[in-house]
UniProtKB/TrEMBL annotation:
Gene3D superfamilies in UniProt: Homeodomain-like (1.10.10.60), Jelly Rolls (2.60.120.10)
PANTHER family: ARAC-FAMILY TRANSCRIPTIONAL REGULATOR, HTH-TYPE TRANSCRIPTIONAL REGULATOR EXSA
InterPro entries: Cupin_2 (IPR013096), Homeodomain-like_sf (IPR009057), HTH_AraC (IPR018060), RmlC-like_jellyroll (IPR014710), RmlC_Cupin_sf (IPR011051), Tscrpt_reg_AraC-type_HTH (IPR020449)
Annotated protein name in UniProt: AraC family transcriptional regulator
GO molecular function annotations of the record: DNA-binding transcription factor activity; sequence-specific DNA binding
PROSITE patterns according to UniProt: HTH_ARAC_FAMILY_2
Residues covered by the HTH araC/xylS-type domain: 188-287
Superkingdom of origin: Bacteria
Length: 290
């Protein structure tokens, strides 16, 4: 037998924590806050002021903003508005890092034509289903098979859009090949390779430095120059995503997961996971039962 085509274990979880289509009157505002997930907002009409990491951005019809995980942000409605947004997380560190290293959170309407097209198509395809699927946060919902199929189709649309959004940010970053010294690119890519392929989640950068025969501070500088985060932050993302995968896909106990991910104790793992996700391991695992 000759394989003409084969892929093994094609898996990538994209978590949609909340999807929101809302209208708000002039003067309404949401206070300064931050969270451990990514957030996207698209202005359908009106005018909205966003303060992201201390900098002000004004979105008008067709403009969008994306908030990195961990960044403080707030919004205020300057004119009666309507907007569409969602919070999301993903278990593909390389793509996650694209969003975490974006230089500018603002996407003007003239550059975001593909966003307007997707939002309009999404609302056309699923807008009439919102009333059936709508529920408040922190409530347990048992959907019918028909509604679960709608949600699956809706989710696939989001995955395709998030992929387009990541590509939008990634393609301009290709200028790195011209701006960043080739030796820096090599060190950053080799470090990412080592981090992505290790099972030692307490791996020290010094170990990679010895393997690459460079100083650990040089590795950190090169990595941040290319990926926008430090190797330590990148490894934290990998560790968190692996923990989520174990919790959702296996029946391993929390104690076993803590051991697999090189935590000194279950309590240490639980504290780490709660800090990274805002949820305890047991509460996060309960998602798969919903």
């Amino acid at each position: 037998m000759q394989y003409l085509f084969q892929l093994s274990r094609v898996y990538n979880a994209v978590h949609l924590i909340s999807i929101q289509h809302s209208s708000a009157e002039q003067g309404w505002e949401f206070p300064n806050h931050r969270h451990t997930i990514l957030e996207f907002k698209y202005c359908i009409k009106g005018r909205i002021e966003h303060k992201i990491n201390g900098k002000t951005y004004i979105t008008n019809q067709g403009d969008s903003v994306i908030m990195k995980a961990g960044v403080y942000h707030q919004m205020k409605v300057l004119e009666d508005c309507e907007f569409f947004g969602f919070h999301f997380d993903m278990e593909m560190p390389t793509v996650y890092s694209i969003f975490q290293s974006i230089p500018d959170p603002f996407i003007p309407a003239n550059l975001g034509g593909f966003i307007k097209q997707w939002v309009n198509q999404f609302m056309s395809d699923f807008g009439s289903d919102f009333s059936q699927l709508h529920h408040l946060p922190q409530t347990t919902v048992h959907y019918s098979v028909e509604n679960n199929l709608k949600i699956l189709k809706m989710h696939s649309s989001f995955v395709e859009f998030i992929s387009s959004l990541a590509k939008f940010y990634y393609e301009p970053s290709q200028v790195l090949d011209d701006v960043v010294h080739s030796s820096h690119l090599y060190i950053a890519h080799q470090t990412a390779f080592e981090l992505n392929n290790t099972e030692q989640y307490d791996l020290q950068i010094g170990e990679i430095a010895l393997k690459l025969n460079v100083h650990r501070s040089h590795i950190t500088n090169c990595f941040k120059e290319v990926y926008g985060v430090t190797p330590k932050q990148y490894l934290l993302q990998l560790r968190t995503q692996k923990a989520k995968q174990y919790l959702l896909e296996t029946n391993l106990t929390v104690e076993d997961i803590a051991d697999k991910l090189s935590f000194s104790s279950t309590a240490h793992f639980t504290k780490f996971f709660a800090k990274q996700t805002g949820s305890s391991p047991s509460h996060y695992r309960a998602k798969r039962e919903m």
